[in-house]
From TrEMBL:
Record GO terms (molecular function): DNA binding; DNA-binding transcription factor activity
Gene Ontology cellular component terms for the protein in this record: cytosol
Assigned keywords, A-Z: DNA-binding
NCBIfam families on file: rrf2_super
Pfam family, one: Rrf2
Gene3D superfamilies: Winged helix-like DNA-binding domain superfamily/Winged helix DNA-binding domain
Taxonomic source organism: Idiomarina fontislapidosi
Protein name per the record: Transcriptional regulator
Keyword DNA-binding: yes
InterPro entries: Tscrpt_reg_Rrf2, WH-like_DNA-bd_sf, WH_DNA-bd_sf
């Protein structure tokens, strides 16, 4: 099982915001510089996170975004289900598998998926940023390295 890049970027945005100073709004440029992710991808992710209620967004001069929910209230299972879409991991009916009526694969995969999400439910976005100062230092190093390459 592999998470979509979209979900990866969404988690990075939330981690960035959780580790950032609460009084500073982030921008797409900030995130693009830190994570080396194209701005158009980040725009889509940020827009979706705003629609889901995880972040607040402001347009125009002085705009940006910040967390709308405390990071300790954002369980990983919920965030990932929202970003991934909670679809079946296998689709035995499209095209219809001939052994579907007697095969146990779908049930096993479904149970595994639920165990996966149950495990993730033990963690929050806040649990990923227990050392925000260390995270911020690494962001600044990455940004400086990128600036030196250009």
């Amino acid at each position: 099982m592999q998470l979509k890049k979209y979900t990866d970027y969404g988690l990075r945005v939330l981690i960035y915001l959780a580790a950032s100073d609460r009084d500073k709004r982030a921008t797409i440029n900030d995130l693009s510089d830190v994570f080396s992710v194209p701005k158009n991808h980040l725009n889509k992710v940020v827009h979706h996170l705003g629609k889901l209620g995880f972040i607040e967004t402001w347009r125009g001069k002085g705009g940006g975004f910040s967390l709308a929910v405390d990071a300790s209230d954002m369980r990983l299972d919920n965030v990932i289900r929202q970003l991934e879409g909670d679809e079946d991991w296998i689709d035995c009916l499209n095209p219809k598998c001939k052994i579907y009526p007697v095969c146990g694969l779908k049930g096993i995969i479904h149970a595994g998926k639920e165990q996966f999400y149950s495990y993730l439910a033990e963690y929050t976005i806040a649990s990923l940023v227990e050392r925000p100062e260390a995270i911020q230092v690494l962001w600044h190093i990455n940004t400086q390295e990128l600036n030196n390459e250009t």
